Input
Amino acid sequence: MIPAKAYAALDAKSPLQPFSFERRDLRADDVQIRIHYCGVCHSDIHQARNEWGGSMYPMVPGHEIIGEVVGVGSAVTQFKVGEKVGVGVMVDSCCNCKSCNKDMEQYCEEGMTGTYNALERDGVTIAQGGYSSQIVVKERFVLHLSDKLDPAAAAPLLCAGITTYSPLRFAGVKAGQKVAVVGLGGLGHMGVKFAVSFGADVTVISTSPKKEADAKRLGAHHFLLSTDKDAMKKHAGHFDVILDTVSANHDYTDMLDLLDLEGKLLIVGLPSEEPSLSPFSLITKRRSIIGSMIGGIKETQEMLDYCAEKNIVSEIELIPVNYINDAYERMIRSDVKYRFVLDMSTL
Ligand code: NAP
Ligand code: ZN
Output
């Protein structure tokens, strides 16, 4: 077994704390990675605090992992020791169902294996994530990272990046379309960057007036304060696509009303309560709601290569690992610009 140091949640209520455990020895198709950076996603908070139910402890969160290959199994062909790589939100799937065969392992019919807070496919081992010194991952679920990208700022691409890139691509966002991104946090600011890069006319819809200048600096063309009821009314029927990244409970009807004929509301944010929603707001303009979960490995690689070509990375605050509990509190207050990334050399 391979010893690993980490930060873990031991239950839903206690702060994360230093933790030691062991990674499995390499199987033939495994890659061993020394972790350099790990982004902090709001899903880490939801799960560490059991906000979705069913959390497994001890839990080492973290699914925006960048590191360096330090070992490969005998059958590994795509990765070499010394290479920079990434690992995202999943580390395994059945690799054999309709979804997996269409490169959509995230929608595996047997259920994908999450990077943490999930049982590995043996049904007993709890998978542990990236707030740790090392990880061992099946080759199919490891991504290549271009040397052109700053590795710390690229870490959030592994979740925040692909989770916004995939639905915007699926919705066919292109030049001339009016696109809104709701919530300027980790996912939201990546959604803005991608929508702008696809040529759309982009609006940030936010509860935080002080984020307007940043929204524009990130490339957004307009800013709409969701608490300003008059401004919201003026934008009724305005947008072709709205990407909703909000982590807290809110009303989806308010967003639907902003959509034009056949507009699409893309849901990626995962509040814990079931949303309220008016069917009238759906039928009156043949609007639709589309949910989307991360992206498949092939699309994630495509996104990383796109980012290297267009020089797209996340805006980050690089923090020592022992700042993690403060970082969680600041994220809950929407006080992060715009993604915390753990510097694992401080572990
Ligand atoms: P984050 O950085 O904390 O950003 C969330 C943003 O939501 C905040 O910056 C804030 O933006 C807005 N917000 C917060 N509380 C709000 C409230 N009460 N009402 C309205 N808006 C509020 O979180 P994140 O890491 O981007 O994650 C966002 C959500 O996506 C989480 O629920 C996460 O679990 C989920 N997620 C889903 C997937 C997927 O595959 N679908 C993948 C990763 C994460 P403003 O200040 O601009 O209002
Ligand atoms: Zn995430």
